[in-house]
């Protein structure tokens, strides 16, 4: 019901569905035709890698900066999505030790100027880094990573906003929906997306907040996702 009310308020021209019918059913697709002009488009590949590649091609940004995150878990792609939007780039997914065909084809055809691997070698191995370098020989290939998801999000922020930022979005690092929905908004307003634990804020996030010098922190989600203690920037023990 909340989504229906917002779609009615937006009165949008087009609704875009990300993913195949196994992810968003045809029943939902049919329900979406009553909103706005009734134009509903679906962008999907045979799997998450193919869908991500299709969406990346839609941005028209494959010739600029491409971010690549693991498709096996969500945290690194969250901060990466916000950074990709801010830098007018694109984000695709990879397996841990091999580049999926859809991702490889998009890299080859896109000829990006820069490719940023998100996360350490435990999530995206050195073999992927080497393969990406071969697939995009004209690109500068970098890795932005930390010791965990919180440090990686901080590293993404530091590299995207080296001069700081006025606003920061803070979301749960333990689950993805709030940060996923906020990433495009964060990109639009020029705000990095950092991660917190439920009841405290990791040291790496606090260090990046200090670097950014932000005067406005937008906490995403209710207290069951980010508690008042975390929202008040209570440091994690240790």
* Strand count: 9
Radius of gyration: 18 Å
Give the fraction of residues assigned to helices.
40-55%
Question: How would you write the strand order of the largest sheet?
Answer: 4-3-5-6
Number of helical segments? 10
Overall pLDDT level: 97
Shape: globular
State the separation between the terminal residues, measured CA to CA: 42 Å
- Strand percentage lies at 15-25%
Estimated structural class: alpha/beta
Tell me what the structure shows.
This protein is of the alpha/beta class and 238 residues long. The protein has helices spanning 2-10, 26-31, 48-59, 75-86, 101-110, 126-135, 149-160, 177-189, 203-212, 228-231, and strands at residues 14-18, 39-43, 65-70, 90-94, 114-118, 140-144, 167-172, 193-196, 216-219. The strands form three sheets. Strands 4-3-5-6 form a four-stranded parallel sheet, with helices on both faces. Helix 3 (48-59) packs parallel to helix 5, helix 4 (75-86) packs parallel to helix 7 and helix 4 runs parallel beside helix 8. The longest helix is centred in the C-terminal third of the chain and has 13 residues, at 177-189. It is globular. The mean pLDDT is 97.
């Amino acid at each position: 019901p909340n989504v229906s009310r917002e779609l009615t308020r937006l009165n949008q021209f087009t609704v875009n569905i990300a993913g195949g019918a196994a992810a968003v059913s045809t029943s939902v697709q049919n329900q979406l035709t009553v909103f706005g002009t009734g134009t509903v488009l679906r962008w999907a590949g045979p799997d998450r890698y193919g869908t991500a590649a299709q969406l990346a091609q839609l941005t028209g940004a494959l010739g600029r900066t491409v971010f690549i995150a693991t498709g096996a878990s969500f945290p690194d792609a969250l901060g990466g999505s916000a950074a990709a939007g801010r830098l007018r780039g694109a984000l695709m997914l990879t397996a841990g030790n091999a580049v999926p065909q859809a991702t490889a084809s998009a890299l080859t055809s896109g000829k990006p100027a820069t490719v940023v691997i998100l996360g350490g070698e435990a999530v995206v191995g050195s073999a992927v880094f080497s393969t990406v370098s071969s697939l995009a020989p004209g690109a500068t290939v970098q890795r932005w990573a930390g010791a965990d998801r919180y440090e990686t999000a901080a590293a993404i922020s530091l590299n995207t906003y080296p001069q700081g930022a006025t606003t920061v979005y803070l979301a749960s690092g333990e689950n993805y929906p709030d940060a996923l929905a906020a990433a495009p908004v964060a990109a639009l307003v020029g705000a990095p997306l950092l991660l917190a634990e439920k009841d405290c804020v990791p040291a790496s996030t606090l260090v990046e907040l200090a670097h950014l010098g932000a005067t406005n922190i937008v906490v995403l989600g209710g207290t069951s996702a980010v508690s008042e203690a975390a929202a008040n920037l209570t440091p994690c023990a240790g």
